Amino acid sequence: TIFVFTVIFSLSLSNLYAEENLSNIENQNEENNEYIDEEKDLDAETSDEEDQISDESTDIQNANDEDKVTDDKHSETDEELNNKDSDEGFENNQEETNLDVNEEETSSEEDIEEDLVTKQAEINEQQTEVNSEDDELDVVELKENLVKLGFANWDNPDDQLNDETKAVLSEFQSYYQLNVTGEPTEETLAKIDDILSTKLQNGFRSEEAKIMKEKLVKLSFANWSNPTTLYASETEAAVRAFQNYYGLVVNGIGDEATLNKLNEILSTPLQSGYYSEEAKVLKEKLVFLDFADWDNPNTFYASQTEAAVKQLQSKYGLKAHGIADEVTLAKVEELMSMDPQKGLYRQDVIELKEKLVSLDFASWSNPNTYFGPQTEAAVKEFQA
Fold first, then answer.
1. CB 243: neighbour CB atoms within 10 A?
2. How far apart are CA 328 and CA 313, in angstroms?
3. 324: closest CA among 219, 184, 199?
4. How many Cβ atoms sit within 10 Å of the Cβ of residue 162?
5. What is the pLDDT of residues 230-273, one digit of tens each?
6. β-strand 230-231 against 204-205: which pairing, if any?
7. What HEC string does the chain produce?
8. Using one digit for the tens of pLDDT, what is the confidence trace for 368-381?
9. pLDDT score of 35 more than 80
10. First-to-last C-alpha distance (Å) of the chain
């Protein structure tokens, strides 16, 4: 019994120790598990921190990349703006491109525009001002050109822009309807160059020369049967004669004044084939001056009128082309205003002669329009 009790008691103690050991093992395992869990949590936290660090690093890298892109864009913008400035030709206006560039560009462009306006105004003013400095104006050449154009006769022009030269310049400007200043302005110099460069002068050929020569023939200043395009010495001589006859500046060049006068004469209605009141008045005067005997002159300027005008022109040394130009009309008025005198043919001479006959100072049976030597002698006898 005691043995059994002892065995049982031993077994109980063994079980008790076994249970205690098991409990200790379970506690140890539990502690180990907790430690493992803590290790895992720590590892997880470490991993999260590393991920966060990695993310932050990535963000920093991305930010750096964005800054680089921005810098690249700014660099491209600078290059584009510089290229644009170069393409558009804006001088002294290359500016830095930044956030304030618009305000700076606007201010700079306004300044440049103002400068350009000012410079243009200065240029315009300089173009109308006279500059007699040797390096800008050759006064000798200017005077030589004025001689060629018939406005002066200097044998050996000097380089002095004196009062005499300015007076000639004023005459030139007035003649060609320029602004009269007496100074060698840009307008004046350009006109001189224009006239001297025309083909209507000696040594050149042109269709205009042929047309001009035909007009000179019609006005009895030449007699070419078949005018050519060559403006030779004969043409120059005819032009000089025309210019002298009509009171133009004589230079032998077909300038605008000469061409205008040619056209003016050849476009008058006082020539064959035209009707005008002026023609009727002229015909009445021709009758009074005994160059015609129309009983009732009309407005038609026909071949008979042309013949009467040619007769008058020939008698008084005018160009006998049959056109009642200004020279012919002036002669008619001169003859009409004169008192009866030797050499005149006028209707009032008949009346004068009849009175001399009635006073027994003459014995003409049929007095005519001619105031000849006999008429002159009778008038002197009466006056004595």
1. 22
2. 7
3. 219
4. 9
5. 999 999 999 999 999 999 999 999 999 999 999 999 999 999 99
6. antiparallel
7. CHHHHHHHHHHHHHHHHHHHHHHHHHHHHHHHHHHHHHHHHHHHHHHHHHHHHHHHHHHHHHHHHHHHHHHHHHHHHHHHHHHHHHHHCCCCCCCCCCCCHHHHHHHHHHHHHHHHHHHHHHHHHHHHCCCCCCCCCCHHHHHHHHHHCCCCCCCCCCCCCCHHHHHHHHHHHHHCCCCCCCCCCHHHHHHHHHHHCCCCCCCEECHHHHHHHHHHHHCCCCCCCCCCCEECHHHHHHHHHHHHHCCCCCCCCCCHHHHHHHHHHHCCCCCCCEECHHHHHHHHHHHHCCCCCCCCCCCEECHHHHHHHHHHHHHCCCCCCCCCCHHHHHHHHHHHHCCCCCCCECHHHHHHHHHHHHCCCCCCCCCCCECCHHHHHHHHHHHC
8. 888 889 898 988 88
9. no
10. 223
Buried b (16+ CB within 10 A) or exposed e, 346-358: beebbebbeebee
pTM above 0.85, yes or no: no
Q: What's the length of the chain? A: 384
